Structure prediction request, 384 residues.
Amino acid sequence: MPMEEDDARRDGANQDGAGRSPREPGAPEGQYAGHGAHARKRGAGGAWADFKDSPFLPAVVLVFILAAAAGLFAGSYTYTMANPTPHHIPTALVAPDGSPEAKQFIAGMDKALNTSLDVRPYPDEPAARQAMEEQSVFAILAVRPAGVHMDVAGAAGASVAQVLAQAAPPVAKAVGVPVTISDVKPLQKGDPRGLALFYISLAAVVLGFVGSIQLSVHARTLNPLERIAFTVAYSLLGGFTIAAVVDWGLGAVRLPFVEAWLILAFTMFTSGMVFTMFNTLIGRWAMLPTWGLMVLLGNPSSGGAVSWPLLPSLLGHVGRWLPPGASVNAQHTAVYFADAQHAFPFLVLAGWSLLSCAVFWFWRHRHPGGRDRPAPAHGAAPAA
Prediction:
């Protein structure tokens, strides 16, 4: 009998005041060990609900997104830059009508490049040179008594100038037309490959949206006007720093400092506001369209690393309408073609900035930030 009394005492200790067994560790409120089958078999629906509410769902999604982004990043840059191929190269032609030398040489270049020179006739070489200053053409073919003279502009596109300069001598030998080649607009000595301007524009683009991300993380309570003001502030300071390091610090490129600085600042601001726009529209996943627009599509098609005549034709046209391409275009013209600066790249940057600011402002209540408005003061209790 003492053993039976001990068993009864143990059973009583394992029950609550209502006679139910206590909850199993980790079981939801109200679920007790006495309902063992239900406690152990919550079903797929309950497990999925727990998973959705846990931090593991976004972490798993990010694993797959980052893996896909890595492949897309490598693929986009390899597709556009690894094997640049000429498609249509705008070329000025200064030659008498029906010149056989010009026809033979152009036909030979088309065959050698497996493309077609987009030949545009000009009345004389000064007119053709002005077209090159305006970046309407990338080369000038002038028929002279001694043969064909080809002017290229390394500053207009180092990759295009290299392709033309390499193809021309074998073609001239094959068709029996002498050719001389001159680079009338060479790159600066500190930037022999013409990549410095691409890199500083890339830095402005990436730091622009990274800065906006950091404001969202560390200064989340900024109100809309304050957020825009601080985006302007870090853009101005960041653009100045980029220009100062590249020009004054490294001496890689001599910049028209104020203009180059303001272009970089404009680029950073545009990039930061594009992220803010997407953050307003889709919240925590805003990095996806920002990265896709600015890095996967915008930078490879900007014409900075590979000139647009050597890019796949669609990318060559699209890139000029995106912020990275507009930034490279404006910076490149400011440094090498200062007398022919044009409004188009600035209009592109302004258009993206205005669109982003408008979306952010009109839907600012959806942006995951800002300070709550103070609650109205309670009035005095009415008299009895």
